[in-house]
Amino acid sequence: MAAALGLAAIVAPGATLAAEAWPVPRDDAADAAMAVIRPEGIRAGMRFLADDLLEGRGTGTRGFEIAAKYMASEFEGIGLQPAGENGTYFQRCPSGRGTWMRQRPD
Q1: What are the backbone angles phi and psi of residue 98, rounded to the nearest 5°?
Q2: Residues 64-69: contacts with CB under 8 Å, at least 24 apart
Q3: Residue 61 located in a structural domain
Q4: Is residue 36 part of a domain?
Q5: Which of 90, 99, 40 is nearest to 70 (CA)?
Q6: Rounded CA separation 33/19 (Å)
Q7: How many domains does the chain have?
Q8: Distance of alpha carbon 41 from alpha carbon 46, whole angstroms
Q9: Which of 27, 30, 37, 100 is least surrounded by CB atoms within 10 angstroms?
Q10: pTM score > 0.85 for this model?
Q11: Tens digit of each residue's pLDDT (9 = 90 or more) over 32-74
Q12: What single-letter DSSP state applies at residue 56?
């Protein structure tokens, strides 16, 4: 314990001097974005996406399409430019349906 306190007494002043010598540049855009992020807004979105009404959001299902459209509207709402197909937020990619196989006992 005494060694840990001794180490802290040596490291802390050095860290303070380093922070003063190399200040982190301010990013006004990041500060502005952080000012509008609300935890309750994040919780509301997570609650919607996790709801059983989206039926698990399996690839190609109705719940998946609803979740994708919800996210596209969120992206648009925060000003992200679409970069998907035909000026949308979406990009189709082929996917197959898999089958779960039972593991053989060893």
Answers
A1: -95, 165
A2: none
A3: yes
A4: no
A5: 90
A6: 24
A7: 1
A8: 9
A9: 100
A10: no
A11: 878 888 889 999 999 999 999 888 877 888 998 999 999 999 9
A12: G
